[in-house]
Structures are given as C-alpha cells and as structure tokens.
Amino acid sequence: VEKMTDLVAVWEVALSDGVHKIEFEHGTTSGKRVVYVDGKEQIRKEWMFKLVGKETFTVGAAKTKAAINIDAVSGFAYEYTLDIDGKSLKKYMENRSKTTNTWILSLDGTVCRVVLEKDTMDVWCNGKKLETAGEFVEDGTETHFSVGDHECCIKAVSSGKRKEGIIHTLIVDDREIPEAVE
Predict the structure, then answer these.
(1) Which one of 10, 87, 135, 146 is CB 3.0 to 4.6 Å from 92, fit for a cystine?
(2) 24 within 8 A of 35, measured Cβ to Cβ
(3) How far apart are CA 143 and CA 134, in angstroms?
(4) Residues 115/121, Cβ–Cβ less than 8 Å
C-alpha cells in the first residue's frame, strides 16, 4: 500500500447514513490531487499545472455534493476548505443540527446511530433508511420502527414555545434515549 505522503487535510462529515471521512492529498510540486472518501479513492489527478482550484465529488448514500477548494495563502502555502451541499462544512453542520436529530445507543452489543430527518421524517440507522409507520396521537405524532428485535418510536411533541418548535424524543423498549451532539 502506497503511503499517503501528500496528505494535507482530513475532515469528518456527519450525514444521515453515517459519519464519513474525507482525506485529501495535494502534491504541491507535481500538482497531484487525490480525494478519498471512507478510505476509497474518488478522484486521482497525477499532474496538474494549476495548483489552486476545486475538486468536486459526492459523499454517502444520498450522494451529497462535496467540493474541496484549494487556495494559495502565501508563497507556497495552501489552504484547503470543504464545502458540503454548497455550504462551508461549519455552516452545513449548523444547518444540519436544525434539520436532523441524532441518537447514539448500544443495542445487543452494537452501537447504533439513529438519525431523524425532520423535513421528510425519514429515519436512518447505521447507514440504512428504515421502514417506518407514523401515527397521530393525542399530543403529537409517533414514528414507529424496529432495530433488530427492539421496538423503537420517535415521539414528536410541540414544545409550546415558538422558538423551540417540536421536540423529538427517541424511545427504545420503553426507555428514553438522550440526543447525541455530533
């Protein structure tokens, strides 16, 4: 295995189907550019006359658009920034925390990462979109699904405060799971 000698940047991106690792190699003498997503090579350009520019690719099951921007800072120093869905990684993650809820729990000795996409009410567990059944209940809605032999439910209840909006709670086997901060 060739050692990644020109590795200049590594990012971790939390998407609904999991946390993805993006690695970027940039040969500042040869102009070589290599992008790896989760250890798999996505782009390889051996010789680039232009040392600055942009590499675009996709990440994860939903093929989320990503771009690495290469900018010269001074002399032979370069800055590398990652954009996800047209936003800086920081902006993307801030927006994502408003549009999704994430819970991390251990079931049958396996760590499960459950993600709710609030706009679609899609539920993901460890990279797979789950079959769900939604129902209206007295104080809101319940989205039922199972993980292995475990009965799971995400309750959506109004907070009663306009600023807070709806509060989503994950219940697994009648146990409330605290939300994770990614």
Answers:
(1) 87
(2) yes
(3) 4
(4) no
* Residue that finishes a domain, picked among 31, 61, 85: 85
59 lies in which domain range?
7-85
Phi and psi angles of residue 136, each rounded to the nearest 5 degrees, phi first = -85, 135
157-181 residue pLDDT tens: 988 887 778 899 999 999 999 998 7
3, two tokens: 């050692």
Residues 75 and 104 in one domain: no
- Tell me the C-alpha to C-alpha distance, in Å, between residue 21 and each of 38, 71, 133, 174: 5, 21, 32, 34
Q: How far apart are the first and last CA of the chain?
A: 32
What is the per-residue pLDDT across 83-94, written as a single tens digit (0 to 9) for each? 999 999 999 999
